[in-house]
Amino acid sequence: MIQPADIREWRDQDVVDEQGRKIGVLEAIYVATATDEPAMATVRTGLPTRHRLVFVPVDDAVVGPGYVKVSYARSLVKKAPSLGIDDVLPAEQEGAIFQHYGKTYQSGPGGGRQLARR
């Protein structure tokens, strides 16, 4: 699990799947608004002129020298809901990310966002 104090240190590190295959580069961490614990990461993928950000849960992530290993297959992550590099995640699209990974989605405190970018 990525600890909140380590978030800045691991940006721009390679993100690899459970078999060590590179998925992309860690762009940002999204925390759960209810707990302030890391919940998702955005991973920069694609060609240099056509990057996009895909979401992947970091609940079982392992951090190593120069990489962050997630417990999801590269093929699943690459098909996850995505954003353009400069886009902001709309609140109404948060549920689709959780559904893609078979996770339960509940809106944040007071019916607001569940995810906040760090």
Automatic annotation (TrEMBL):
Domain of life: Bacteria
Gene Ontology terms: cellular component: plasma membrane light-harvesting complex
InterPro entries according to UniProt: Bac_photo_RC_H_C, PRC-brl_dom, PRC_barrel-like_sf
Domain PRC-barrel residue range list: 7-72
Protein name according to UniProt: Photosystem reaction center subunit H
GO annotation terms (biological process): photosynthesis, light reaction
SUPFAM superfamilies: PRC-barrel domain
